[in-house]
Structure formats: C-alpha cells, structure tokens
Amino acid sequence: MSGHSNRAISTALTPESIRQTITETDAGADDAVARYALGLGDDALVLAQRLGEWVTNAPELEEDVALANIGLDLLGHARSLLTYAGSAWGQSEDDLAYFRDEAQFTNRQLFEQPNGDFAQTIARQLIASAYFIGLYRELSASADPLLAGIAAKALKEVDYHLDHSEQWLLRLGHGTAESHRRMQRGLDAMWVFVDELFTDDAIPGDEDAAPLAGIAVAPSSLRAGFDALVPRLITQAGLTVPTAPSARGGGRQGSHTEYLGPILAEMQVLARAHPGASW
Amino acid sequence: MADPLRQLHAAHELDDDPDGSGQRRFDELIATDSRIEPSDWMPAAYRKTLVRQISQHANSEIIGMQPEGNWITRAPSLKRKAILMAKVQDEAGHGLYLYSAAQTLGTDRDTMFENLITGKAKYSSIFNYTTPTWADMGSIGWLVDGAAICNQVPLCRASYGPYGRAMVRICKEESFHQRQGFEILLELMRGTPAQQQMAQESVNRWYAPALMMFGPPDADSPNSQQSMAWKIKRFSNDELRQRFVDMLVPQAEILGVTLPDPDLKWNEERGHYDFGELDWAEFTEVLAGRGPANAIRVSRRRTAHENGEWVRAAARAYADKQSADGQSADRQTNQAPAHEWMAS
Ligand SMILES: [Fe+2]
Ligand SMILES: [Fe+2]
User: Which residues form a coiled coil (chain A) (predicted)?
Assistant: First the structure.
C-alpha cells in the first residue's frame, strides 16, 4: 500500500481520483488500514447526513449555505475514506454506505447525535471540528500516502468549520440569556461523547497497535491538543466546560445510541429498494 | 385616477426630476442598450416592476430549495447526494444575490423575506409541486432549471445593471443544474425497468408545469409589453416557451423519454415544434394557492425563521455588545462578528 508515487497522490484528493489512483497503481488498502479508514469515513458520513437535515430549516439563509457547505466537505471526506477502505474488499463507497447495517457502522457516537436546536448542532460541530483538526493534522504526516493526501485536503476544510462553530459559540454564549442557556445545554448534552473520540481501543482490528504504527493516529495522542483548545473557547464564550460523566462509547465496535438506526433507514431506503441499480 | 399611492408616486417623480432631464437620460440609456445603475434616475414604475420581479425571483430560488431538499437525506448514491446538496446550496446563494440586487433599489431584504413567509409575495408556482420520487430530482434539473435558463439567459442583458450581473452568475450555475438533472434521468433510463418507469412517470408530471413557467400566453400577459419596452424582458412568454420546447425535443430523444404531448410534432414551415394547448386552468389553480404543496412551502420557511429567531436575536445582541466595546483596544480578531453570518 505504500507504492504510490507522490505525483499520483497529489491528485488523489477526490473520491474519483482516489479510485483511479488505486486502479492505476493496483494498490488498495490492506485490511487493517481499510478498517481504520472505514471508521473515519463513517464518522464523516454520519455527521454529513445530520448536517444535510438542516438544509431549508436553518435560522437564516446564510446558515442554510454554511451548514450545507460543512456537510458537503464532510461528505467529500467520507467518500474518499470509504472509497479507499472499500478498495481492500472490492467494495465501492456506495456498497459501504448503503448496504451495511447499524452494527457494521463504526462511527463514534458523537456524530450520530440529533441536530437538536441550533446550539446543540454548534456544540456537536465545535467538538467534531476541534477533533478533526488534530486528527487530520497528524494524519497528513501518515506513512500511508493516500491517507496523508486525504487528511491534508480535509485539514484546510475543517479549519474553516471550527471557525464557523467558534463564531457561533461566542455569539450564542454572549448573545442573550436564552441563547446562553441553550448553548450551555447543547454543550452539556454533547460533552458526554467527547471521551470516546480519544479512546485508543477504538482502532478496530488493531488490538496490538503495532501494524498501524506510523499510519494511523492514536486517538489518545489527540486529547492534549483538544484540551488546550476547546475548554478555552468555551470559557471565552462565557460558558462552563461541562463535567458530566461520559457515555459508554463503543461506536468503533458497532455499538450505537438509538439515533443511528433511523439515520441509516432514511439514508439507505431508496438504494436498498433497487439493489444492484446504478444512479 | 383614484389610487392615492399612484398619485403620490407621480407627484414624487415630478419632484425627483423637475426638468425632465432624468427621464431623458433614462430613455437614452434604454435606447442605446446601456445599463441603468442604482444611482441613476429611473421612473418609479420601472423601479417597482424590478423590485417585484427580482424579489419574486429571489423568493422562487428560496422556496425552490424545498422540493429538492426533500431528497438530500435519501439520495441513492453518495455522489448524487453531494451534487444535490451543492445544488440546493446554490439555490440559496441565488436567493441571496437576488436579494442584494433588489436592495440596490431601496427595498430591504427583511421586508422581502417577511412578505415571503407571510404569504404576501409570489414565487414561481412550479415549486408548489411535490417530489414523490428520486426521478423528480432529474426532472427538476432538466425541465425546471432548463426552463429557468431559457428565461434567464436573456435577463443577463436586462437593462438594470445589478440584476443583469446577478443573472450572469446565476445562469452559469443553472446550466450545471440542468446538465446534472439530465444525467440523473439518463442514468435512470439506462437502468432497470423500474428506474426507467420512475423517470418517465416523473417527466410526465413535470413537463407541462415546466412549460407554464414562462407565464400565460402573450395575449393574456398585459405586463409583458412594458417590461419589454424597458428592456427588462427581451422575449415574449410564447417565444421563450417555443425556444424551450425546441431545445427539449432532441434531448428527450437522447434520454429515450416520451414528452407527454400527443400534438408535439415538427413543423417544417415554421421551423419549430408545434405543441398542444396547456391546461391553464390548472396553472390558475396552483397560482391561487391550490397546488399540491402551496401551504407547506411557505409554512416551512416561516417555521424555520421563527425557530431561528432566538439565534438571530443572539447574533444581534452580540454584535451590539461588540460595537459597544469596539473602541476598547485589544479586541481579538477572532472575536469580531463575522458579518457574512449576521442577520441583516
Ligand atoms: Fe437557481
Ligand atoms: Fe438551479
């Protein structure tokens, strides 16, 4: 899997070009890398699906645009990661997105949480974006050139996503008594899913961690960066860093909150009604 | 004349342009196909016509997000999901550019939006139809964006500068939308029998409403002539409709779909396709609010707006606090309000 030339990688930024690079260089992911990419791809896909729910429902048109934009970026990351993951098993991004059941989805639980009100969406996005920044910054130095290429492109985008969440965190935190209350409640509700993001046993099929050394990023290594950033942002917004106990987690092993099933039912309904069809 | 508002406008126009030099310059700009800019004198009726047309157009873009937004979460492939999300996002962007163009005429965005969500303002009736199947994403792109392009390409040369320039930008994106819709249908028509049937059934539903997007026949369209004289509108409703049908027929052949009109046939003499009478009674019904989704469309946007009131209030309060602190020295740049996200 490390046989790609740099030139091939520099163009391997879209799902289509990734598919092409894999075909041309005959270098699909191996199983452990694929499972790692699948987890990251599922995170991005499920969150993109949630953001898509906002379109036509946002508090103002600019937010319809902004949330769709963020969702589109995440969908792009998901497509790249799932395409790469699927190369290990002869499956396409759509095989993986539409024809796996709930227990086979390996997203962490934060990403499947409901949009709630706008404040909850911002809380979820703040946590997600801060996590993604750390992740993609490290992953862009991965020994796996395709993962590194995907991460380098994603990094620029999640940086903008964090900026968006940060601006709203400040506005809602300092805005009115109601927005402050809602923002705090959103943070409290989402904070219980923070610990899972940084849990090392979440790398599937890689219990001894050795095979993916230098390729995958150990989630625990990202915690310090997150802790140095997010609590400071929350405090700057005049809000309190939540101290609620964390949820059990287990998303990488296919354990989910009750929210994932309905997301998948909706997302997959048409594709599953026409198995084998192309669109 | 009994209308006091009209009298007021007429009087105002005289005040505005006591020696008639504004009118002369306006007429000259129109005659030489030049652009009228926001700072130029213009007749009150010209301004009013533009505000009505541009804000209706903006509203159509905004309401038009809904029938397609309906399929974002269910798009049958990730590629189609991405294309659809980007498209619906483009439509929001079109609404925003057009609101900006209308604002240069002195009507503020909040008023236009308020008129939309209280049901006072019009938008294109086509968006009162529903999208029961995925194929409708194809039909909307191919037929509705297609009709929009035929309507809008001439508007790129509209005499009012900001409108024409907004349309140039919008038309580029609309032509992508049409191609994407065509591709959706093409993929379906090359697919399984169930997919082909889905495509044909959808085209059957959207074809006539799309033709009616050009508005009533010329004989029944009293406002059109003045708009043409002002070079806001360049072609009549019937001319545009004919152009659209002529464009669709060869595309339908490539797709392999049948256009649902038994009278559709090439007329050698005219050099155009003849087509059957449209059901203008249905058009009037939908226009009068009795379409499949009239009530839902407006109430959905209103609900979103009302649910978002606390968010906009927070943004306003924060901006006020920031500007109150504005003079105090070491404000961090990342704490400054991002104006592009502010409620106007
Ligand atoms: Fe548009
Ligand atoms: Fe469009």
Answer: none
